[in-house]
Amino acid sequence: MLSASHSKQNDMMGWAVARGIQGKAEICCDDMAGGGRGLIATQDCAPGEVVLRVPLSATLRLEGDCCATENEDDNWAGTLASKLMWEKKLGSSSHFETYLENGLPDEAPLTPCRWTSTERLALQNYTFVEESRLNAEWRTRQVLRNQPSNVVEYLKMLDLVCSRTLKGRSGSRQLVPVMDIANHAPSETGGGHFQVVENDAVYLIAGSRGVNAGEPVLMDYGGRSVDDFLMHYGFVPDRCLSDCVLVPIEAGHRTLSWNDCQGYNGHPEAGVRQACEDLLMTFPTTLEEDVALLNELPLDASEATRNALQYRYAKKSLLASVVGMQSSSARRSAFSFNHV
After folding, report:
1. What does residue 333 show for φ and ψ, rounded to 5 degrees?
2. Rounded distance, CA 22 to CA 26, Å?
3. What's phi and psi for 245, nearest 5 deg?
4. Helix, strand or coil for residue 112?
5. How far apart are CA 72 and CA 137, in angstroms?
């Protein structure tokens, strides 16, 4: 007898085929890992090959004036969330009923705007805490603007939209069934990329390593910082080489990334190394202490607690690498800990 997760998977794939979604991948469920989902290759895919094609008629799409950036509020997200609410209200009359019921997660990502104030303070970054608060206010403004009949359901749809929408070159935004189940991996570790061909379809292209049949099909979500991943997707990726930190140096600030680290020697400028070392000293816990907390984290620890620790680890690892591994405050390599 099929489990509920596998039944949903089969219903979703049947719907996808009927809507013209084609390719060399299918949805997979991992009941042993708590029911997590992803895409798995059904055939070998060479680098640059199309793994999945989703016709625009099978997407939930906004374009034209709906996507115009009238102000900093990005109201397109609220509009698309309202569209999801409308499709859900249509029930069996909606072409997207199966996608709404079986294609979308049961829960929206647990982003920091939904954490408690205590959980947000555990990030040890007051700037990011403030950004999370502003993000929560933005969500409230979208509710006031769109006046949904069910606020809780609308906020769930809004968070799903923010974490799953793909943007086309023309500015269009679309939720892309099946493709939006692909998990993240940076391009350097095999993540593929999407391509929106206007008036045609959305394509998922295999990464530079290709994909063998039976392997996960992964997609690079873009060159984002750890802050961006956590704010909009609700997770902290491993080895986020696109991450950066803002460091106060003399009278101003400098943005530093992994590209500014020169092996064990850190940054070539002594002043920059010292500024990062000074910043590391301001945190209430050290990098080594955070690693120990991650390794000792109980299995029943909250998702927010785990993500806060991983966030701190990512930021302090980057700072320590800029300082240089030979410094007493940066004793270990950024990626040498097995904390998963």
Report:
1. -65, 150
2. 10
3. -135, 145
4. helix
5. 13
DSSP 327: S
Q: Are strands 173-175 and 22-23 parallel, antiparallel or unpaired?
A: unpaired
Distance CA(128)–CA(277), nearest Å, equals 20
CATH number of 4-233: 3.90.1410.10
Average pLDDT, the chain: 88
> Nearest to residue 6, comparing CAs of 26, 31, 25, 23?
31
Q: What is the pLDDT of residues 273-301, one digit of tens each?
A: 999 999 999 999 999 999 999 999 999 99
Q: Which pLDDT belongs to residue 322?
A: 93
Specify the DSSP element, H or E, that contains 134: helix 126-146
Place of tokens 């690079």: 220
Tens of pLDDT along 67-111? Answer: 555 555 679 999 999 999 999 999 999 999 999 999 999 999 999
Separation in Å, CA 237 to CA 44, 91, 220, 340 = 26, 36, 11, 11
Tokens found for residue 304: 């927010």
Supply 274's token pair.
Answer: 């010292």
Q: What is the pLDDT of residues 254-271, one digit of tens each?
A: 999 999 987 778 899 999
**Residues of CATH 3.90.1410.10 domain(s) within the chain?**
4-233
Question: Which tokens hold the place of 165?
Answer: 């929408």
Query: Percent helix, strand, coil in the chain (nearest 5)?
Result: 45, 15, 35
Rg (CA), the chain: 21
Torsion of CA 45, 48, 51, 56, to 10 degrees: -170
Q: What residues contact residue 144 under an 8 Å CB cut-off, 6+ apart? A: none
